[in-house]
Design brief:
Strand content: under 5%
Number of strands: 2
Shape: globular
Number of helices: 8
Strand order of the largest sheet: 1-2
Radius of gyration: 15 Å
């Protein structure tokens, strides 16, 4: 992994998404790895990271300045402070979590004509499907939520799943 990865933040984020995404903890674990694979590639777990190539991206998932999702993320306010956690990390994690759970948040996209989804809510529903393995969750999240320009990133981020799983808990990989 890149030496710029903030492993303390990644560990907290993985636990946060695992505990808060859904009641089925096995399924939530798989989804948390899919989210974390994207955060690793986008920002190394640093919530104030600016786009590596000098572009307009900012934050954990490199929201594009001037776009609606960026504006919503910047305006999002947290209701509480978790002691010992960077407030910006917490704020963006909560924004991601709430955007994932709400198919009408504007965070989801149909993924384009070859994605298999006609509507954004179909992509969100498939991501939340508890029977999906972590690799599939990563691919759905990458293609329809994060949407990197380089489409080869879908596969690359999915390939991070076994390594992330080995860091956290092998019993959840199915």
């Amino acid at each position: 992994f890149d030496t710029r990865v903030n492993w303390d933040n990644i560990k907290w984020l993985q636990k946060f998404f695992h505990e808060n995404l859904m009641e089925d903890k096995d399924a939530a674990y798989n989804k948390s790895l899919g989210i974390i694979s994207n955060i690793l590639k986008e920002s190394f777990g640093e919530p104030t990271t600016k786009q590596h190539s000098g572009g307009p991206g900012y934050g954990l998932l490199q929201w594009t300045k001037g776009k609606d999702r960026y504006k919503k993320m910047m305006e999002y306010k947290t209701d509480s402070i978790i002691q010992g956690v960077d407030p910006e990390l917490q704020r963006q994690a909560e924004f991601i979590l709430n955007s994932i759970k709400d198919p009408n948040s504007g965070g989801w996209h149909d993924g384009g004509s070859r994605s298999g989804y006609i509507k954004a809510k179909d992509a969100q529903k498939d991501f939340m499907n508890p029977s999906n393995r972590a690799t599939k969750s990563s691919e759905i999240f990458t293609r329809t939520f994060v949407r990197p320009r380089d489409k080869s990133e879908v596969k690359k981020r999915g390939e991070l799943i076994p390594l992330l799983d080995s860091l956290y808990n092998n019993k959840y990989m199915k």
